[in-house]
Amino acid sequence: MTKDIVCSGIRPTGNLHLGNYFGALRNFVAMQDEYDCYFFIADYHSLTTHPTPGSIYDDARRILVQYLACGLDPERSTIYLQSDLPETVELYLFLNMNAYLGELERVTSFKDKVRQNPNNVNAGLLTYPTLMAADILIHKATKVPVGKDQEQHLEMTRTFAQRFNNMYHSECFPLPQAVGFGQQLVKIPALNGAGKMGKSEGEASTIFLTDEPDVIRKKIMKAKSDSGPTEPNQTKPEEIENLFTLLRVVSTADTVEHFDHLYNTCQIRYGDLKKQLAEDMEKFIAPFRERIKELEADDARLRRIMDLGRDKAHASASRTLSEVRRTIGYRN
Ligand code: TYM
Predict the structure, then answer these.
(1) I want to staple 215 with a disulfide (CB 3.0 to 4.6 A). Which of 49, 131, 211, 238 is the partner?
(2) 308 to each of 39, 138, 174, 301, how far by Cα in Å?
(3) Is 196 an annotated catalytic residue?
(4) Which pLDDT score is estimated for 1?
């Protein structure tokens, strides 16, 4: 029986963080045995916001190391650099022909980027969702492990796939779904009490898989909290709920219950909660940090893994692209 196809990627902008792990990577690792998996490093996408990246190859290599440290296995999954698969770019061009300005301008992530950086509204940024759709559709993937913030992009991928199928009276593309851990797509909050963890909320609000113990402790002790509940069983304000969300991902159920009880009975001391959270976070991060250090020195192995991934990804992508070209009516 053929396996369902899974595809997803992460942009190489700095080190991977807790949001990347719980939103995406944990699921990549868990899906490797059951599915035919393609995991890439989105080093074309990074050009949309970083038009002159310092060291694009080093950034991509760093993410490869971090993928491996989290448990991605080049024997069981196809792991590759997006820029090693130029077939994606040809499919991106075809999809762009049927992607409309109005729908691209309405994408939330595009509007956010325009607000953050009004002097760099380039066409790549506008067509970010079509490149993402090309990444997924080039392998005819049906399952895409991502965090909550990518939901809209997946909706657009389905729109583009369906539109292509209708336009050319074909069944070339399946309609892929975003998948989370269990039923839900995950959002890991930033430590500053607002928004999601990630680069845009700043490094001080983000726990990276490479953070040393003292860095983790400092970041968590500075996390936003309030002056505490004044009535029993009060609804938690966002910044407090966020601390509990982090506790839920790295601490035991008993620990969560303990602090929940203290909150509900107005006895909570946030200093104690943060100390416990920092301790559990360090226990969680330490093995990743150590494996990253071990793996990053073996340049020859990393290059072999990239080559293997490129060849496997190419085999799948060239099949799809031949079919797409034939479907549109080009010579193959
Ligand atoms: P990127 O690089 O911003 O994030 C990579 C993955 O990490 C997830 N993520 C989070 N999940 C939960 N909580 C958070 N705080 C958090 N921060 C990040 C994201 O949801 C994502 O799954 N457009 C993608 C990269 C991409 C892609 C693709 C993904 C390019 N082509 C094709 C899937 C399929 C992005 O920028 O993710």
Answers:
(1) 211
(2) 13, 18, 26, 11
(3) yes
(4) 74
Residue position matching structure tokens 């909290």: 225
Contact 207, 281 (CB under 8 A): yes
Is 216's C-beta closer than 6 angstroms to any atom of ligand 1?
no
In this structure, CATH architecture of domain 5-186+298-328: 3-Layer(aba) Sandwich (3.40)
- In 107-260, the DSSP E strands lie at 143-145, 177-179
CB of 113 closer than 6 A to ligand 1?
no
* 146 Cα nearest atom in ligand 1: 22
Sheet of strand 143-145, all strands in order from the earlier edge strand to the far edge = 78-81, 36-41, 5-10, 143-145, 177-179
205 in contact with ligand 1, CB cutoff 6 A: no
Residue 228 CA to ligand 1 center (angstroms) comes to: 33
Of the candidates 180, 88, 104, 69, the residue with the CA atom closest to the CA atom of residue 137? 88
CATH number of the structural domain 199-293: 1.10.240.10
Ligand 1 closest atom vs CA 42: 30
For ligand 1, whether the C-beta of 20 sits within 6 Å is yes
Per residue in 76-86, pLDDT tens?
A: 999 999 999 99
Best residue among 41, 83, 88, 149 to mutate for probing ligand 1, ranked by most atoms within 8 Å of CB: 149
Active-site option among 143, 187, 196, 219: 196
In terms of Cβ atoms closer than 10 Å to its own Cβ (0-12, 13-18, 19+), residue 119 is exposed
Length of the chain: 332
The pLDDT of residue 51: 64
Delimit the domains of the chain by residue range.
5-186+298-328, 199-293
* Structure confidence by residue, pLDDT tens digits, 88-146: 999 999 999 999 999 999 999 999 999 988 998 999 999 999 999 999 999 999 999 99
Q: Where are the alpha helices (DSSP H) in 138-206?
A: 151-167
